[in-house]
Fold each of these.
Amino acid sequence: MIIIETISFSEAVKYPFKVPQRLLYILLLFIPIIGWLALFGYAVRLVNEFIEGMYEGLIKLDFMEDLKLGFMVFLKALPFYIAYMVILFATTYVNETLGNLVNLLLGFFVIPLLAVNFFRKQTIESFFEFDVLNIVRDNPGEYIVTVLKQYALVIIFAVLSIVLVGIPAMFFTNSIFVANLYGRLVERKAGHGL
């Protein structure tokens, strides 16, 4: 059993630049649908690397495999996002402020962990495994710090977007801290049979 260490903030900032030429994968955004799906599949593989505590640098893109993975994961994610949009629409219909509050709370406390769980297991059901949210209940301080570090990383890369390198760095690391937390608290716990 590999013990996954907590990734430091400085290591997360450096991560996308360890193999800088792979930042060019972001150019696939200019190829509608096919490029987007390939990047989505690539992002799923990256999140799995983060869960396993592997931070050597951006992995190599395998266009056809990542395209297939991206397509399948996209299809499997649709039921969750349809349910999410229905909830947001219903709460916003009742009261716009309530809708905004629900969106904020779900976006901060629910979606990040469920998305990482889904990327790990890649089943429709895994997006609805709400017991993974026990991490938030059992470790509220650590979870909040993790998500705030993720936001801080996004802000740094957003500033670096002025010189363009921040755009792919932001895209490729958008779940690095939450995936690390998941690897440490969910996978380790499952590995110990607790």
Amino acid sequence: MTDAAPPADTNADPSATGGQPPAGPGFRIVAQYVKDLSFENPRAPDSLRVDGKPAIDLGVEMNAQGRKDGLFEVDLRLTVKASTDAMTVFNIELLYGGLFALQGVAEQDIEPLLLIECPRYLFPFAREIIARATSDGGFYPPFMLDPIDFAGIYVARQQQIARGPAETGQA
């Protein structure tokens, strides 16, 4: 492997498009990875025999940041707590990340792309990790997250920011 600098006009991987640069704006997934995973089944084996469906408390957070190498790191944090009146059935915390390369994306479109579209691509893999963790924890059927409306979360977040701290109760 050499440390030669790439040609000046290489914003895209030509091998991914048959030797042709992409026709328009887009992104490429460079890597996906588990940054942090925690699964707790504190009342096992009693938690495996719960009557009825436990209450589910779901938390979703998306964060993105640029890197010095021109790539963008997107984190999808999912927290799931299943509980009954009598006990915590299970707790899962997953921080799943992706590294993305953007090509030809307008400045005003970067944030929505990173916080809506990139998490949409990460979600099925994160969902599978959570399902596998609950299955490995003894739960049958495994817990399957419903699809998440990342656009709705993004819009709600933007509206909250526009209202400012005075209206949201923050100081």
Amino acid sequence: MCTYNFLASKLTDKIPSNPNMPIKAVKYQLESEHEVEYAHLRDYLEELRRANPGTTTIVDVQQCDSSSDSSSDNGIYPVAYALVEKEKYDSWLWFLDCLGKDLGLDTRSNFTFISDRQKGLLQAVDRLYPCAEHRYCVKHLHGNMKSKWSGNAYKNHLWKCATSTTVPEFEKNMLALKGFSEPCWIWLNKIAPKHWSKSHFTGRAHSDVLLSNMCEVLNRWLVDARDKPIITCLEFVREYLMKRIVNVINRMSKCQGPLTPAATKIFEGNQKDAHKLTVLWNGDGKYQVNGPHGEQVVVDIVNKVCACRRWELTGIPCKHVVVVLWNMSRVNDETVGPLESWVHRVHWLDTWKNTYNYKINPVNGIDMWRKSDVPTKLLPPIKEATTGRPKKNRKKGVDEKVDLVGKTKLSKKGTINRCGNCKEPGHNKRRCTNASVNTGQGQ
């Protein structure tokens, strides 16, 4: 487990429990709490390293100016986290550089990133890891599209293009979008498809995921940590990750295998669909697979490639490969072994369990921390002056507003409000001036 810590200049202040406390007293109390925790920050990091051998902790500080008054199984495994002043190029560059040093990455590394196209992050990834595959979350891409072209028709066209697994299928769907809206097609065509369409993804990630929802879920769980002083905030994150890892381990203990639950569900669906297909063998290592509605693809079983590219993209044999394996075993009397053995090891239950062999250990309380021998004192960073109450939650799109019970509800933008009294548009019941309805006359 690697933990990166960076001084945060935009931690939201805690709301005081006493609403009658004078503003100056409130400010002093909040600043005192942050100063106390920053003073113990190095001691806290010492305790983290003691309790979790191999953990990396880094503090990047800004010198004081004396003249100034100032988250395998289609899930997420937390590798590193950081506390930064804000999302910007310098912060992303620092974090990704630290991450690369811990994981042994260099400019030739071909990891796969997926993000919301945050400008600073794009630049940092391009600079440090030019060989990496960088995917853009299609949900965020659609959010950008909606500012000019809204409606389900545009959304459906985008998703058809994004979920296309072959270049011919992608080009066909892009052509359909052009016929529907050429301006939208021009806008989307400027974004390289290697970042957002399965048809142009490499197969090295063994995942065809198009969304960064896994990260959004993690962010939602950690939102309560953002208004805490620095050590309290870091402890909130650490304890949450401890509990999360234990929950996953408990879930794994109930799985039968040999594949993870998500992979098992996908593979079972592929086997069900394979019953509709027929196979023609060329006498060597290639097979022609035919299906309904003119479907016809070639499977190269030696090189583990199917023309539909789903096997290459996910590492899970598609329906075409499944029916070929059945043909090899039942018709050609070849030894293929269990079908699951053709699934990439990344989707095996044993791989999932090995990932979670690494635990986050508990730490002692502040009274038992070994004192850091670094002589300089850490102080909270100077906060930028802002107007109004600091925002705690991220800004949501118009299509993801959430009500009190957590259910997504649609925006009312563009709808016409009508009075509950007279049913006329333009006002509500409280402001209704229709006397006949208000007095009960005309009934």
Amino acid sequence: MTMSLSTGLISGMDTGTLISQLIQAEAGPQTALKARLKASETAASAYRTVNTTFLAVTAAAEAAMKPAAWNPTKATSSTSSVAFTATAGAASNSLTFTVKQLATSHAVMNRNTTPGTWTSPTSPYGAAEITVSDENGVASPTKITVGGTGTLADAAAAINASSHGLSASVVQISSGEAALRVVSKETGLTSKFSLSGAGTSTTNVDAADAVIVLGTPGTPGAVELSSATNTFDSVMPGGTFTVSKKDEIATLGIAPDSDAVYATVQSLINAVNAAAKTARDYTSNAPGSTATLKGDYAVSSLGSRLLDNVTAALGVNGSPAKIGIQLAKDGKSVSLDKTVFMAALKDDPEKVRAMVLGTPATTDADGDPVPAVSGLADRLLAVAKGASDSATGSLVALANGQDGLKKGYQDQIDAWDLRLAKRKETLTRQFTAMETALSSLRNQSTWLAGQINSLPSAS
């Protein structure tokens, strides 16, 4: 059992503080281990922070290598009432049309004109089943059963729960009359339907297709195109548009989107600069630097390799400067000149693409082999993956290595906890024994003094 001491009752020493100081002195190796553990945790976090920026380079390079990144299209509409989108690679095109009518859903009003019959949602519907017929008057083989207590509200609920694609609600026409309004969930001519059950059903809104007119409406050369919905997806190859306002004249256009290509390459350059800066900041050797990975060449060299690969010549295609990519004067970042890039993309888009994506191996006019040339994205992807790949990446390995050190340090710290606890127990026992011995000596001294004092004195 461990005893706790504060101040020795016999010796008068502050034994609790003395034991704590002795334990603190003996815990020096553990304190050093804790410092190493903290350093490993900090280093592991730093490696993973740098790794995150290289993962961003990987993602940006892979995005630049997708075919869709090199044939993006820009869809334009002259009016906000016509929403227009185009797929990547769609051919340049334009179209002007007039919106003649919008697509509508068929609606039916089911009423019972007998006074006092349908006065509220709780009024009896008056029939156990409802039959739904399509636009051709053909009744569905499945009838709708009115459940509950057979009220008008129950009829609406039964229609809503059915598989006929209808939406029903009770409408309070006046204080003395309620009716059932049923609307198709679809639009277009094929959404027409009719009801038979209780009361009388009449068309409330007639179903219609959306119609646009190519050319001048009302002239012999005008062409009408229809859609069951307000969306047209086969009028312009590669384009889809949705109309929302009648009598609107719209002009739509599809054109290559050079700005999107520039944005893709700029995103790659931004990712490179961010990764290079992070690697440089974490490994800085500048006077007074407190960088976590100060002087770590394995990390600093990765940032340098990115910058080298983004500015080095691209084989027969020449320097990236031809498309506006240049190293800054301080050598710490690269830039992409939009004016130069856009001009190169306009003059020779295939060459720009080849410089970023590379060219495959081919043969020349004489049949001699021409080796493949890696593009900018290929080279940067190789560097980034070499650093950040989850299985083989160097930054991942460095972070995992620190994790291994952390475990080793923690195991040693835990062992020291047990050792120091045992040592404290021993010291406490020793000081307790000392106090007990001093107490015994004190008692003996007191007894002897008493004995001496009790001896007869010489007269």
